Amino acid sequence: MARVRAMRTLENAVRRWGFCRVAGVDEVGRGCLAGPVVAAAVILDPDRHIPGLCDSKMISAATRERLFELITQKTLAWAVASAQPAEIDAMNIHRASLEAMRRAVLAIAPLPDMVLVDAFAIPNLQMAQRGVVGGDRRCAAIAAASIVAKVTRDCEMAAWHAIDSRYGFDRHKGYATADHLDALARFGYSTLHRRSFRPRSLEEGGHLSPVG
Questions:
Q1: Is residue 140 a contact partner of residue 6, using CB atoms and an 8 Å limit?
Q2: CB-based burial of residue 89 (10 Å sphere; 0-12 exposed, 13-18 middle, 19+ buried)?
Q3: Reduced to 3 states, what is the DSSP secondary structure of residue 144?
Q4: Residue 135 neighbours by CB under 8 Å, 6+ apart
Q5: Helix (H, G, I), strand (E, B) or coil at 67
């Protein structure tokens, strides 16, 4: 997939409607066997352009880390939040992802007055919001949030690898790669794994199969 630069068109339109603090929100880690789902909320500064913002999946780790530094230095506000494996198992991955995004929005002070979120509206927010399909590719604030969430989660998974190197979390970050599935077959589930997900066999491609 070609890299597409995210634009500020939607944010600029929202500001013309009278909203001042416009937050982009996104999450990463929905499809993993292990680790948290991490969300970020970012309010870009309209007077400080950050070139190169795009969907975090479309750029290299080095580029994400460079943009992470720019985003966290040049934005009006940003915050991250997560839902841990036990919460994911208790409430299901979709609800846990929405809860992580809600927490990220509420961690910004003062609160945004408008929220642009990738794909799904976030329940239980007391401010205006809009779900944007493909938002991490179309909207600069959502793209920035996707980068902040991705870099934050990758660092957390690398820290877990330093504690328990059996699974290779530093390489696959908890996704169902062949070497991760092999490690699961050898060592079983760790405290970081989601019990509500089970990997199918390697012959079936190693995809995730939610339980319950």
A1: yes
A2: middle
A3: helix
A4: 24, 26, 116, 117, 118, 119, 142, 143
A5: helix
Which sign, positive or negative, has the C-alpha torsion 55, 57, 63, 68? Answer: positive
The whole-model pTM stands at: 0.90
Q: What is the mean pLDDT of the chain?
A: 90
Alpha carbon distance 148, 80 (integer Å)? 8
Q: Whose CA is closest to 166, among 147, 151, 146, 188? A: 188
Dihedral over Cα of 106, 107, 113, 119: its sign? negative
> How far is Cα 88 from Cα 66, in angstroms, rounded to an integer?
30
pLDDT computed for residue 134 by the predictor: 86
Could you tell me if residue 81 is inside a domain? yes
Domain count, the chain: 2
Q: Are 63 and 69 in contact (CB under 8 A)?
A: no
The residue ranges of the chain whose pLDDT is under 70 are 1-4, 199-212
Shared-domain flag, residues 127 and 186? no
The answer on 182 and 139 residing in a single domain is no
Pairing outcome for strands 128-132 and 197-199: unpaired
The DSSP bridge pattern shows strands 22-28 and 37-43 to be antiparallel
